[in-house]
User: Fold these one by one.
Assistant:
Number 1:
Amino acid sequence: MEKTETHSGIDLAARYDDLEVDQARHVRIVAPAAGIGLHVYEMPSGMGADSILVLIQMNDYWFLPMTFEPQSTDAATNALQRASMAVDLPDLGCSAGCYFPMQIAKGEWIGDLIVRNVMPDAYPHIHYSLLYKSPDQTLEDAFANNLEIARNQGTGMPPTSGLGSPVSPTELAGTPTTFYCPYEYSSAAAKTIMDNTVMLSVGGAVCSCACAYNSEAGDCGVCP
Ligand SMILES: [Zn+2]
């Protein structure tokens, strides 16, 4: 079957079905790698609720997108989510993007995911991805049409270490701005954690890989 990764990342879901109405759980979220700035975009989630996309800028080419998705339509919950980030979001919002130049250490707190009053048929989570930005385009241009950003299909990936990798970046000639599965670029320790976590496709079927290629119809697809 052809691989068609449309999801562009991994949903790291938080426990939520044990809470009472209006009871909140704060889930501490830290930076997976060091960065030189945070870019924030506020936008509707795929379920139509509010979400906050935080891109940790690693260098000129590579970013770690982490979308805080409480999946709640409750205004108080979404206000609490906005107030629970490591940076102060302006009252006017960040729909066109906000930039916070700052040094971020690996493991540093970037915000709490708020688990409270979750909408039906949704799960609160961090959408975790990896982005290569082509120098042909600004980040603002890319996220003005974020659904148009290319999704890597698990083949032809940049190196995971050494020259051209996210930690030793170069321009990848001919590669457009592209989302990659963060699993392949994770440490052995992080991979072990993911390997020992129950992995589900969008349809609820148990998968054997963190990025479920072709997962939309409950088919876990093919792991590279
Ligand atoms: Zn997602």
Number 2:
Amino acid sequence: MQLTEEVIVDMLNKLGSYGEDPSGGISRFLYSEEWVQAQQFLKEEMEKEGLTTRYDEIGNLFGKFEGTKYPDETILSGSHVDTVRNAGHYDGQYGIITAFLAIKYLKAKYGQPLRNLEVVSMAEEEGSRFPTAFWGSKNIVGTAKKEDVAGKLAFDNGIPFEEAMRKAGFDFRDETKELRKDIKAFLEIHNEQGNVLEKEGKSVGVVQSIVGQRRFTVELTGQANHAGTTPMGYRKDAVFTAGKIITEVLTEAKQVGDPLVCTFGKMEVTPNVVNVVPGKVLLTIDTRHTDKEALVSFTDFAEETMKRIAKEDEIGISIDMWMDEDPVPMDENIVNVIANSCDKEGLNYKLMYSGAGHDSQVLAPYYPTAMLFVSSVDGISHNPDEYTKPEDLLEGVKAMAASLYELAYKE
Ligand SMILES: [Zn+2]
């Protein structure tokens, strides 16, 4: 079996035909008909290769290639099969296909491994049909909660979660069941969804850490007043204060630099009228870093700065931090295995971090986990225009195959 660009693109197109949306791209939601068909397609492909397939209770699909020497040790790889609405051809499904093709290639070239090689097509990650995300990976590690989905209705057709799940042939996980102990490594490859690799002319990224995030909503309260008759000195203008806050916090963020990012993505001005001094401003802040301490130190700075400026301007302020997620480091040993494998294969790669969340962050606290990226053209994702060049797709599969070889075929 040859690893070629055509083989990869062909399989992406085949899997991508399940849920093809007439309005563009792929819309393949959890437990929909297209979702069931996509999982079935993958199951048949795996069986054609001689893999032993099974679904878990909730619909994660596994395909196992048995090892000869360590039957209780498994190297797992894969990603999620669901998509957002009007998704591209890479997010999620490239990770599943890469794991599958890498195993197919290794099987043809080297025969049975010492440890089990297993591919997983996870049920759900995106949260695009029900208000839940990471349903697939959270069920693998047993952190998914019935309460999180009980009575939740589908955004597309209003069907309750449990009904959709049972209609697709699945049910809740047996919570008394023990977690798998055989998984010795989990590897996930994903399109980057950013433009770092492209800007640096690299094909493959080896992820060292997934960023932590803190998100805030800030409310500034001044006084709405007549824009013509209120002299500048007598104003409590919430936009003026917001402007100073944004400038000072973002200037510091630029000063701190990579891998810190900070975004004031949303702003609501009240009353939002041309001839009224704005009495109220609502701001959101999204800030991320790979290091917990650095993240905390920056958000402490941001909070102090906001309070100080508001006080100077005699503007009321309330700050609400509603998301606080720690960074997730990837397993150092596996990161080294991947980097060394890329070196051996002569691949054009870079060590980096992930600015977005992935299934890997759910699995990492339980199993040694690492991630790879392939370059995304213009960093476009969650969009039918999402694109990774076939040559980069191929480099990604090569990196995965070489890494799986090291982990499953070597003592
Ligand atoms: Zn994804």
Number 3:
Amino acid sequence: MSWQTSLFREFPEAVPQDQFVARSYEALHQQGFRADNAIAFVSVCRDELTMPLVDVIENTWGEVFMFSSLGGMLTLGKTGFLAAHRHAPIEDGRERYVYYALPHIAIDARGEFGVYHRPGRRDASHTCGALVAFQQELESKSLQLAVDPDDLEQSVLKRHLLGKLRYGDVPDLVSLTRIAYTVIFEELERMIRLTVDPTRSDYGLFTGIQIHVPEGRHFVWPGTAYVVVDGKQMTLPKME
Ligand SMILES: [Zn+2]
């Protein structure tokens, strides 16, 4: 089996990451968003593998305010969201925000999910490592549920994911990544409801799953995307 077989079996709508960002820009540009009147916010995993996507977003929108945390979870809270919004340019009295939020997964040359061969390391490593660590903890049947002050981001990740699992279930990594996607999308919408005033601000929201494949190539499975202008929500077509 090859990575292509695995990629298009599980994520048939996946597109190269450049295309994902270009389509998001085109969709927002039609609604009056430009690099000089909008600011982009990005929530991806801390893993260096996610940075090429951030680079494409920065080349498109200018420097981004990073929301990132382990697994791509949104842990910055209201203070973080409000601070980010205050960095937006104001044009004709309005602010424009562009949110990107995506968990990630890797596929190796043999088509195996969660495996990535990093330069300078003999053994393969897990991607996303935070999700794999949680999966191993579920398998061990000795889950630490209390918030660990020495492991805050992973504690938040576990709490969110557990809320979506049936007791005793240990999902495979692709399923767990899809659950992480749902958690991140719902949390993003909740934080936007708590912090954005749609009478003053327009925004676009782009979610999905980042997929790293061999030879430094990166795809995105596009999830829910929409734009809110003057308080009205418009769903964007799946960006195939
Ligand atoms: Zn990760």
Number 4:
Amino acid sequence: MSDDLFRGRWVLITGASSGFGEDFARQLAARGAHLILSARSEAKLRALGEELSSKHRVEHRVVTKDLAVAGGADSLADDVLALGVEVDHVINNAGFGIGGPFSELGAKRAAEMLRLNCEALTVLTAKLLPPMVARGRGGFLQVASVAGFQPTPYMSVYGASKAYVVNFTVGLAEELRGTGVRMSALCPGPVATGFQAAAGIEIAPQQRASVLSSEETVRRGIEAYVANNTVFVPGAVNKLGGIAAKFLPRALVARAAGQMMKNRGRA
Ligand SMILES: NC(=O)c1ccc[n+]([C@@H]2O[C@H](COP(=O)([O-])OP(=O)(O)OC[C@H]3O[C@@H](n4cnc5c(N)ncnc54)[C@H](OP(=O)(O)O)[C@@H]3O)[C@@H](O)[C@H]2O)c1
């Protein structure tokens, strides 16, 4: 049943060269989807595309792009539209965070993070959504984070960028009601991927027992997308964290989150 959503359909995956993006490519190819793989690491994308095409008899295209530079997402959307295929699903997954005091982050990195995590995702949605609405099918799986539910001291830009993704997605899901186009935010907790090295953080020891694998996170994320869940948090501990962030005073949540980052040596 769920394979009907993907079999023979084209899916654009950003950040497909590692972590969740690579797992999305592997799992969606296994469900019969044709892949448009994007990231900056061309060799990795080509190797992955060739492996999955020959294993699952699906087609693939590679569009290498830096989405943290001005105009990057516009250019990716134009290149994708020029491929001449109907893109039915977009996994807006590329993103990064950086741990440490905001006063040491620097304006350039902050702007790049917002451009990738928020602007690129928005531009791709703006350019690739209208044909889906016209066809009355398709959708976007926007990769947010549990960090989007709360203030995240010492990763404040990252958490705020993911709060944008959550609210943008929920707003659009309401606008799209009845159109046949779905809009889902996947909000994982910490998962071991390339994210930690890029962010300069490690998964806290007290979090390790509840950490899901990237493969499992993506598997559950795809099922939630198929079920048309607007916001999905994989894992019971992560779900509880999201609920606590909703009901506890914001300042208290910020204090606890800041303390955790201090304990991890990132403050
Ligand atoms: N892992 C976690 O704990 C966790 C938890 C919650 C949410 N997330 C979110 O999950 C998403 C995927 O992250 P991940 O955990 O899979 O990390 P990852 O392994 O570091 O993957 C990040 C992907 O984004 C791409 N990327 C980074 N900078 C880019 C740029 N400037 N332009 C285009 N592509 C770029 C990378 O490819 P190239 O380097 O080849 O460009 C890579 O494919 C992110 O949005 C992240 O915020 C992660």
